[in-house]
Each structure stands twice: as C-alpha cells, then as structure tokens.
Amino acid sequence: MRYRTFVFTVALIGGMAAARAEDKPADPVAQGKQLVEKSKCTICHMIDGKGGKIGKPLNGIAEGKTDEYLRGALTDPKKTIGPDTKMPSYKNKLSDEEVTAVIAYIKTLTK
C-alpha cells in the first residue's frame, strides 16, 4: 500500500510539473508573445495594426534600442522613457526571465 501511495504521489507531482511546463513555452519568443497577450499590452499598443493608440506601436519599437534600454522601459519606464510616460512598470509584475522573453518577442516585431 505504501508503494502505491508513493508511486501515485510521484506521478501526481510529475504531472503538475509537466502542466506548468506546458503553460510556459520553451522558446523565449513564444513565451514573450504569450506574456504580451496575457498582460494585454494591445490595450495601449498596436501590433500589426491592431490594438490601442495610447502607446507607440510595438512593431519596430525595438529597432536601434539595446536590450538594457528595453528592460528599463519595461521595469522603470519613468526613468528610461521619461517622467511623463503613461507606460506602467512591470518590475514587480514580471520576473527577469519574463522581461527577457518579452524583449525577445518585441525584437521580432518589425515595421
């Protein structure tokens, strides 16, 4: 009986880990796209001509900008973009890995 309980517990934990892995794509670009969609960035920003007009379109927004600048724009926009920006900070909303994934995704969005 103890063996069955042990096997069941291991299978349950393995299944939970696999489910979490499915939620987060292995590809940073795919993960970044998923995060942009989940964070509803298109309320303010356009992507491929669709979305809000409050912020700049995300297509081409990364061109000529360093990853450091883009990271600052996401985590400390008032300092990086400017004190009057309406861009919210994602410092406590996204992990470093998630910010890196969002940067990887927006770098693929060309004009």
Question: Which key phrases capture this entry?
Answer:
111 residues; mainly alpha; Cytochrome Bc1 Complex, Chain D, domain 2; two-stranded antiparallel ribbon; 5 helices
Q: Assign the CATH superfamily.
A: Cytochrome c-like domain
Strand order of the largest sheet: 1-2
Helicity, as a percent range: 40-55%
Element pattern in H and E: HHEEHHH
How would you characterize this protein structure?
The chain has helices at 2-23, 28-38, 67-75, 77-80, 96-106, and strands at 46-47, 50-51. It is mainly alpha-helical. It has one domain: Cytochrome c-like domain (Cytochrome Bc1 Complex, Chain D, domain 2, Orthogonal Bundle). A hairpin with a 2-residue loop joins strand 1 (46-47) and strand 2. The radius of gyration is 18 Å and the shape is globular.
Question: SSE layout and pairings?
Answer:
Blueprint: H1 2-23, H2 28-38, E1 46-47, E2 50-51, H3 67-75, H4 77-80, H5 96-106
Antiparallel strand pairs: 1-2
Helix pairs in contact: 2-5
